[in-house]
């Protein structure tokens, strides 16, 4: 059987309050609410950044593809039997390095025949000169007729022409013999060979033997809308942007996998015409490629500096909102500590900030945190922070705002 609890363990009843005190409790609670309602509310806390003019590099990111700096299609310039392949497919070759050897025997024979013809023509020239030399003094003595002398002079001129033709034939035969050894006209990397040893090739045939591609440096062709290029030129002419020159424009690459190419390039030129199909202008940049990382045909994104905006004002993007009319607006705290709303004009995004061209002035304080707590005409509790503190999470100002709720 359960044992009864001792009297000390039983709960004590609440003491009974007098009836007049019970009637006063609602009145005391009402008075407390009135006192709390009459107490003035604390001003809402906001964080602001003071705008300072600065020089801002304006960068443009454009899509593009890589292209080989030079491509040489190797074709034979003489006909014959392909006797030897002197390279390994895919290897790097230097300018003038031998690639193929065509059977040189027929061309050596042709050169020997041309040299013999040249020797015969030179012998005939020597005889013609001797005859002319003998006839020259005899003409004055009437020992030789004038007609005979004239024929000797003409024969000498004909012999000189035959010697010149024979020398040209020897030179042509030597060139053909040299062309039996096919060399690379440029430095680059070889492709696969389309023909093997033993194949019969013909001069200037349609099918190339192989291609040699120069990869260092390498080209990057990017496209920019014509309207963007015109706007950029107007800003430069108006003085809002400054550029040192086309040769000074540095270009950076982002590869297809999102990685950054480590070496910078330089803008080479811009096309003088607009593509009718796309309405874009092609820009070409040159990049060093010593390791061969970039191959022709890769899709890349090129980031180039369009110019430098002097005395520019940058506003964090979280400080700019849209009103019901779709206009960009920002809240500022004036010198009297009152919140004012401004309609601003944003030109472009620069990282996580807007480049503002109108609506704000240097030295003004823009609300970057707590904008949802205030409205125009309110005097908030203002805490000025730096841009670095904002990027790091707001610093002590934001911590104080969170503590106050």
Automatic annotation (TrEMBL):
Q: Which UniProt keywords apply?
A: Signal
Q: Which InterPro entries match?
A: MdtA-like_b-barrel (IPR058626), MdtA-like_BSH (IPR058625), MdtA-like_C (IPR058627), MdtA-like_HH (IPR058624), RND_pump_MFP (IPR006143)
GO cellular component labels: plasma membrane
Any one GO MF term held by the record is: transmembrane transporter activity
Chain ranges of the Multidrug resistance protein MdtA-like barrel-sandwich hybrid domain: 71-213
Q: Which family does it belong to?
A: Belongs to the membrane fusion protein (MFP) (TC 8.A.1) family.
Annotated ranges, domain Multidrug resistance protein MdtA-like alpha-helical hairpin = 111-180
| Residue ranges of every copy of the Multidrug resistance protein MdtA-like C-terminal permuted SH3 domain listed in the record | 312-373
Give the signal peptide as a residue range, or say none if absent. Answer: 1-29
Family annotation (SUPFAM superfamilies) = HlyD-like secretion proteins
Gene3D superfamilies, A to Z: 2.40.30.170, 2.40.420.20, 2.40.50.100, Helix hairpin bin
Organism of origin: Teichococcus rhizosphaerae
Please verify whether the record's keywords include Oxidoreductase.
Answer: no
The UniProt record lists the Multidrug resistance protein MdtA-like beta-barrel domain at 217-307
Predominant location of this chain?
Answer: other
Q: Report if keyword Signal is assigned.
A: yes
Which Gene Ontology BP terms does the record give? response to antibiotic
What is the name listed in the Swiss-Prot or TrEMBL entry for this protein?
A: Efflux transporter periplasmic adaptor subunit
Q: Name one Pfam family in it.
A: HH_MFP_RND
- Cellular location(s): Cell envelope
């Amino acid at each position: 059987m359960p044992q009864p609890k001792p009297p000390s363990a039983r709960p004590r009843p609440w003491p009974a309050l007098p009836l007049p005190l019970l009637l006063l409790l609602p009145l005391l609670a009402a008075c407390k609410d009135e006192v709390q309602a009459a107490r003035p509310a604390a001003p809402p806390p906001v964080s602001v950044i003071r705008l300072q003019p600065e020089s801002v590099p304006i960068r443009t990111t454009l899509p593009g593809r890589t292209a080989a700096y030079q491509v040489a299609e190797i074709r034979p310039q003489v006909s014959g039997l392909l006797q030897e392949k002197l390279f390994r497919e895919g290897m790097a070759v230097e300018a003038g390095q031998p690639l193929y050897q065509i059977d040189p025997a027929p061309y050596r024979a042709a050169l020997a025949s041309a040299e013999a013809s040249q020797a015969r023509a030179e012998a005939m020239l020597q005889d013609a000169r001797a005859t002319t030399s003998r006839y020259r003094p005899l003409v004055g003595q009437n020992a030789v007729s004038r007609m005979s002398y004239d024929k000797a002079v003409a024969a000498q001129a004909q012999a000189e022409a035959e010697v010149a033709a024979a020398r040209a034939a020897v030179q042509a035969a030597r060139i053909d013999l040299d062309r039996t050894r096919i060399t690379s006209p440029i430095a680059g990397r070889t492709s696969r060979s389309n023909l093997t040893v033993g194949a019969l090739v013909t001069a200037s045939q349609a099918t190339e033997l192989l291609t040699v591609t120069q990869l260092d440096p390498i080209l990057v062709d990017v496209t920019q809308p014509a309207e963007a290029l015109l706007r950029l030129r107007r800003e430069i002419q108006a003085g809002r942007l400054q550029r040192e020159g086309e040769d000074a424009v540095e270009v950076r690459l982002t590869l297809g996998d999102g990685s950054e190419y480590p070496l910078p390039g330089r803008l080479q030129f811009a096309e003088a015409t607009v593509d009718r199909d796309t309405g874009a202008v092609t820009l070409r940049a040159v990049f060093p490629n010593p390791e061969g990382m970039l191959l022709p045909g890769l899709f890349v994104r090129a980031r180039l500096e369009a110019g430098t905006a002097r005395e520019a004002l940058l506003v964090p993007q979280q400080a700019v909102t849209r009103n019901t009319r779709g206009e960009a607006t920002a809240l500022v705290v004036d010198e009297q500590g009152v919140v004012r709303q401004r309609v601003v004009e944003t030109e472009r995004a620069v990282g996580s900030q807007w480049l503002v061209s109108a609506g704000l002035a240097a030295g003004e304080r823009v609300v970057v945190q707590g904008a949802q707590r205030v409205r125009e005409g309110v005097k908030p509790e203002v805490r000025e922070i730096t841009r670095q503190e904002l990027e790091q999470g707001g610093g002590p100002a934001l911590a104080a705002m969170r503590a106050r709720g």
